[in-house]
Request: fold
Amino acid sequence: MNVKFKIIETDLSQHSIVVRYYTDYFTEDNLASSFTTNSSGEQTIDRNTDGSPKRCITDYNINIWKTDPPPTTDDLIESAKQAAPYDWFKLRYDVLDPNVDTSLSAVDSLLGKEFTAEKPIPIPIPVQKEQITEDQIEALIRNLTSNVT
Reply:
């Protein structure tokens, strides 16, 4: 699967770009999210003057954290590549594949039940030039397993 993208907007007040992602199968038109309904109830995609959809569900706002020096074109392209929703597109393909079970049948017994989320305990990882020792690895494992309920 080749995920394609294009930068469609900038927001200087947020130092961000809006990037649209799509594939050959999930085209911009398939992913459009802004429509106009005519008097007979038919919907048409709202389009820009260049013919592209005004909005898609894969239009991502990406803050550009680099400011000094300003980002290069390569930096911007790399930021967009890193933010690409590869897993999301894979999921979309899987949902359409009749050979992949995406029924979520395990959810049936969970519907309507209340659960409590617990904030994960951060795991300190030593930052050092030398390699992590066997003792440090064992201490990390002990720390992880001691916090399991």
Observations:
- The mean pLDDT is 92.
